[in-house]
């Protein structure tokens, strides 16, 4: 099982430090969702975990090796990271895109092999895209397109999958479609998934573990029911909320109080 | 069972490649045969294989053959360089001159004529080639300073800045020097006729190296076209991939423009036609673009000999006449391509 550990990370852009002194162990955690308010550094952390951002200080350990010292192509065989809302060139078909996920396994003298062929067909099957394989990406729905990108990352054949807001720009039904897929990737195929997610209730339902961040540090980490408390929501999001039991999953469900308050503040006679 | 029709797709793409190769051979033969003196195919054959020193043999061997070879060379180079530059900048309106290569070559040639009084074409093309290299290194360096490294936008901006600066300097120099003006005017239109055949073996190695680097760049460019983050995630180092592409663009464009002048439109139009045939896979797009570049350049040159018979129109003018309307049609027919 792949393990990913952050040690005393300091991250930022130029002089602006976003994350300082962060340590986190993401080993063998199934599906982890990083949550937190805008600008708390969760995407920055994910980029550093996926070696897209070089830390100012500290280390990221991939199976115990400093990720900065492992050749990037080797990292790409163990860890895949999908940025937020990636863009493909026009006319690219689903099969073409997924095929490019095999890049780290190919070299200039060995462009294509039967194991590549198998991995691509497998990735397409897992995401339910076999029938759409030769359709251009531009013609797909948002949810299908996101599944195609995840499929590319799957073809990379890595134990670890990092996803930056995989549900951005999708409507609720498509968000569920993508998150169900992510759930299956862990449950049926043993992938370890770390994703940044905005929606607390979806995070609680689909992740085994939540990491709540505020101002570049980890405010809480653990099972959804442990992390999503009234106190934490007030502290991390500055949100007054009630936690009830999700009638479907039995997990925690966050009900913000803001709107409810103004409703109860209305005169009872309704005039 | 697999629903991924990769085998069929590859066969289809190979067939197109074969078709383009045949077409290239066709225009090559036509380019040797058609002109003020029409030489039938048997005549072309005998002039090439066992010449007897007739006027016809002489026309073929000393005029048509070098001209055709320059057309093949420059067309292939500019077509491929165009596909590379559009891929690296993700800009469908980019042409090989975008990185300052063309203006760099022109400036160095004009400068060598102005300051050193160089008059021999075979000497000042080397200045042109060196100018192309220097300009492209300058653009790449300028585009890389600052945090993010060389991105499509910084490269395009640096290229535009350097090109504009060089163009201003050229305008100043050619006002001061009649000889430089004459060379520059001719160079600016672009031509493959009347070039010294001895230049051919001199630039050929650079073009071949450029073509090799371009093809080696194709897999990297494929993943780069998914965005730099995705490319890095797939284990591709972005800096070296860009550098390889820019080296190839410089070699190809530098050799072509130094010898044949600023042949407009080839590098701009050809990749669009090639992309319509290949889709966005650079492993196919690049060879298609090379062959289509040769076909377009030779085709335009042949057309220039036919329309103004018994005289002829320079290929640069023909390219503008063909390329302008074609490009407008291309832009109007389809919505702007996103790369």
UniProtKB/TrEMBL annotation, chain B:
Keywords: Cell membrane, Membrane, Transmembrane, Transmembrane helix, Transport
Coiled coil segments of this chain: none
UniProt topology in membrane: Multi-pass membrane protein
Regions that span the bilayer: 68-85, 97-117, 123-143, 155-176, 203-224, 244-273, 285-303, 315-332
Localization per Swiss-Prot or TrEMBL: Cell membrane
Main location: membrane
Pfam families, per the entry: FecCD (PF01032)
Family the entry assigns: Belongs to the binding-protein-dependent transport system permease family. FecCD subfamily.
Protein name: Iron ABC transporter permease
